Amino acid sequence: MAKVSMIVNGNPVAKNIDPRTLLVQFLREELRLTGTHVGCDTSQCGACVVHLDGKAVKACTTLAVMADGHEVKTIEGLAADGAPLHPMQEAFREHHGLQCGFCTPGMIMTAIDIVHRKGHDLEDHVIREELEGNLCRCTGYQNIVASIAAGAKAMENSDLA
Amino acid sequence: MYEFKYHRPSTVRQAANLLAKHEDAKLIAGGHTLVPVMKQRLAAPSDIIDLSHIEGVDGIEIKGRSLVIGALAKHADVASSPTVAEAIPALAELAGLIGDPAVRHKGTIGGSLANNDPTADYPAAVMALGATIVTNKRKLKPEEFFQGLFTTALESDEIITKVSFPLPKKAAYQKFRNQASRYALVGVFVARLPSGVRVTVTGAGQDGVFRVEAFEEALKKRFLPKALDGIDVSPDGLNSDLHGSAEYRAHLIGVLAKRAVDAANNRA
Ligand SMILES: Cc1cc2nc3c(=O)[nH]c(=O)nc-3n(C[C@H](O)[C@H](O)[C@H](O)COP(=O)(O)OP(=O)(O)OC[C@H]3O[C@@H](n4cnc5c(N)ncnc54)[C@H](O)[C@@H]3O)c2cc1C
Ligand code: FES
Ligand code: FES
To answer: Domain 2Fe-2S ferredoxin-type spans what residues (chain A) (predicted)?
Structure first.
């Protein structure tokens, strides 16, 4: 067993876990934060993307012990229960950026990472290139791209990062 | 994944001691090669030694006439570093073409080189630029370091600490990506160095990265795409799979080499 402690969505958590535990398992099974999904389990699809110290990473390819002492943010950490949605979440709702919703948490965490790195004015081709690690099997991407462009703009005037 | 014991050293020396002490131990840096391999149960290390908490081995700096990159520097750090962009822009571009953004946030240059995947990008740059791979024990030249498919000169308790790239006069990298995995189907790195010209190929060779001497000779005389006209690369020893035949890869090497020379010349 290995002791891990980290800050998840602003809250300190500490657990004893088998060192084999993947970060995505830790989040879903130990912390019951089931918004982070497992699609491929082979680092291809991006359904498991969370932020580790503010950067998008694939939680299915990260050992939970490697996040010890670090900060993790999941889709649940974007907006508090009952509070207004994060502008990127709102943009996905407004622009129909999802159908079944399975890929959506990973898409949104990736989208926010893109904004952090590339700013608020995102051209479509930039968004499409940056989405190369996220797969959606429903939408055809058109609306995801439109959602991210709108969400990126909306984030400029929001307190939520 | 099989069970293992987890260790978190805070210095390279501690990590090396742990490696020496546990026979079936493995280092982990970004984990983006090792974790998938362990998930598939293709590796069963008894002990995992996590390098990611060791400080001071992820720096990027200019030292004299070289660009020195710490082994734990992430692909994303190399891709976005103003120091790299100014010293060897081709290297920043190469790093930016590895996998996808989330992969680049975790994978490290040291892990990539130690793994020596025949389709990985960094080996092409390291060999073309004549970089030196520095470990806790010695300094290695690319020709000694890369020893074929997933094989390097690293000994069982040896750890890469940094890579030192001499600054080229001109350089460029051109990659034809496998659309599914984003690894190189073929990647060609062309470098014009004070000592001559080097052209390396990744993704195509059955034994991993290699140099194309016929191209080097021709480009030494005239550093122009035209200089490569009529020089064919033999498909012998090249990979053939469902993504492309050996002949197709041989053809791509010529096409990408010309594009790389063009890109290097157009970079002022
Ligand atoms: C979806 C996906 C797409 C990818 N696409 C590409 C691509 O297009 N091009 C490309 O080049 N790569 C690609 N990669 C590989 C990626 O770049 C890996 O991160 C990298 O090859 C390994 O680096 P790491 O730091 O993650 O190493 P790890 O997985 O932690 O380690 C890999 C191996 O190196 C050893 N090791 C690690 N660090 C050291 C060190 N300092 N000294 C000695 N040994 C060490 C480990 O023991 C292990 O055997 C891709 C990976 C994924 C998951
Ligand atoms: S589940 Fe992690 S990338 Fe698909
Ligand atoms: S909305 Fe269904 S997978 Fe993307």
So the answer is: 2-78
